[in-house]
């Protein structure tokens, strides 16, 4: 197999006494699976922490990786914020309204009606240059600004679309990896080549309600010092996670840059293994690393190994790896899809057809997969 299409990444990561991802009521997110409730970490939570990680193997620091920002205030804060400091407010307001409508749609002038949108550095730079040019042409005249904004709206929208279509990374590296959906302009959508499943515990949920107080250091006499009394939920668990990368799709989004694609895959392996969701850092120190990571490269449709844990497994890495390996062996016997495999594991349980190595070995192997395309 010289040019596998899909890279599948399976991982098992343990946590104790944490609250990694909360629902709308402040409790841990959950998932019913196999007749029992499991603790869950959403794919959105995982992707955000991998995307913004301040880590030696971060994504945003890769050479050639354009930045991107996800917000409802990109025009306000990235395009016009500096202009407001030196230009008449009424003049800026005329252009700001029009630019928001071009970027966020016809209702974009109202912040509450805007979609939280991802724009790349190249898109923001173009918008900023257009704003500076128009403001200069208005020369401080509100009436002229209104006429210029009206004339620019249709032309600007067309030019913005053309610029975006011609850019290598219109949505920055974030958009190239995790995609972009623009409801006001479907042509601006970017198909995500990185697909992330919700992680869940391989066993039934393990949770407790933690009662705690904030002590008043200045309490005196008969005062108890318990100034605030609260409760929070804490959970423990061994989580199974699953990620798929469509390698040709990634290369397409990166303009065919094989070296950049390889660096992205290399760093992504490190981030998945080493970066934890960052909720309640000060009170739970929720830092962990993958106890097992399995990479598979193949050209057939990917398949999760989640069903290995439909019957709850003991919360122990060796037993979880054994359950995963048994399920993988059964799939191999039934489908014979012939994936290439690499595994890193803190347990000694064997994984069918997988060559063992360190995290660095797995990351280097993933990097090399990009160069095998074409």
Report what the structure shows.
The protein has 374 residues and is an alpha+beta fold. It has twelve helices and twelve strands. It has helices at 43-52, 74-79, 81-84, 89-104, 121-138, 142-166, 172-178, 247-253, 258-274, 281-284, 317-335, 359-371, and strands spanning 6-18, 30-33, 36-41, 68-71, 117-120, 194-196, 199-201, 206-215, 226-246, 292-298, 340-345, 354-356. Strand 2 and strand 3 form a beta hairpin.
Write the layout of secondary structure elements.
Blueprint: E1 6-18, E2 30-33, E3 36-41, H1 43-52, E4 68-71, H2 74-79, H3 81-84, H4 89-104, E5 117-120, H5 121-138, H6 142-166, H7 172-178, E6 194-196, E7 199-201, E8 206-215, E9 226-246, H8 247-253, H9 258-274, H10 281-284, E10 292-298, H11 317-335, E11 340-345, E12 354-356, H12 359-371
Parallel strand pairs: 11-12
Antiparallel strand pairs: 1-9, 1-10, 2-3, 3-7, 4-5, 6-9, 7-9, 8-9, 10-11
Helix segment tally: 12
| Helical percentage | 25-40%
N-to-C SSE string, H for helix and E for strand: EEEHEHHHEHHHEEEEHHHEHEEH
Estimate nothing, just give the exact number of structural domains.
2
Please summarize the sheet with the most strands.
10 strands, mixed
Q: How much strand content do the residues show?
A: 15-25%
Number of extended strands: 12
Label the structural class.
alpha+beta
Q: If you compute it from the alpha carbons, what radius of gyration comes out, rounded to the nearest whole angstrom? A: 25 Å
User: Are there runs of 5+ residues with pLDDT below 50, and where?
Assistant: none
User: What overall form do the CA principal axes indicate?
Assistant: flat
**Terminal Cα span:** 12 Å
Mean pLDDT: 92
């Amino acid at each position: 197999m010289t040019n596998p299409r899909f890279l599948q990444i399976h991982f098992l990561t343990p946590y104790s006494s944490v609250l990694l991802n909360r629902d709308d009521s402040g409790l841990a997110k959950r998932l019913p699976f196999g007749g029992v409730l499991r603790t869950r970490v959403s794919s959105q939570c995982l992707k955000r922490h991998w995307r913004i990680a301040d880590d030696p193997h971060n994504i945003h620091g890769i050479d050639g990786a354009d930045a991107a920002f996800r917000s409802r205030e990109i025009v306000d804060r990235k395009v016009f914020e500096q202009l407001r400091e030196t230009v008449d407010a009424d003049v800026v307001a005329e252009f700001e309204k029009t630019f928001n409508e071009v970027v966020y749609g016809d209702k974009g002038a109202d912040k509450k009606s805007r979609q939280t949108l991802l724009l790349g550095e190249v898109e923001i730079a173009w918008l900023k240059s257009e704003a500076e040019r128009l403001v200069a042409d208005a020369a401080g005249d509100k009436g002229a600004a209104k006429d210029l904004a009206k004339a620019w709206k249709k032309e600007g929208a067309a030019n913005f679309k053309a610029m975006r279509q011609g850019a290598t990374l219109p949505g920055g590296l974030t958009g190239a990896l995790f995609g972009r959906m623009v409801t006001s302009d479907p042509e601006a959508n970017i198909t995500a080549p990185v697909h992330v499943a919700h992680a869940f515990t391989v066993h039934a949920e393990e949770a407790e309600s933690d009662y705690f107080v904030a002590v008043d250091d200045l309490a005196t006499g008969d005062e108890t010092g318990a100034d605030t009394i609260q409760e929070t939920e804490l959970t423990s668990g061994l989580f199974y996670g699953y990620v798929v990368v469509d390698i040709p799709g990634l290369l397409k989004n990166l303009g065919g840059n094989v070296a950049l694609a390889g660096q992205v895959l290399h760093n992504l392996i490190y981030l998945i293994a080493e970066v934890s969701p960052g909720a309640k850092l000060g009170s739970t120190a929720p830092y962990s690393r993958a106890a097992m990571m399995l990479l598979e490269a193949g050209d057939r449709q990917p398949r999760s190994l989640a069903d290995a844990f439909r019957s709850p497994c003991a919360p122990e890495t060796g037993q979880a790896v054994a359950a995963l390996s048994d399920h993988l062996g059964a799939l191999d016997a039934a489908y014979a899809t012939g994936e290439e495999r690499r595994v890193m594991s803190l347990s000694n349980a064997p994984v069918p057809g997988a060559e063992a190595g360190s995290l660095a070995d797995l990351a280097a192997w993933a990097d090399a997969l990009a160069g095998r395309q074409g």
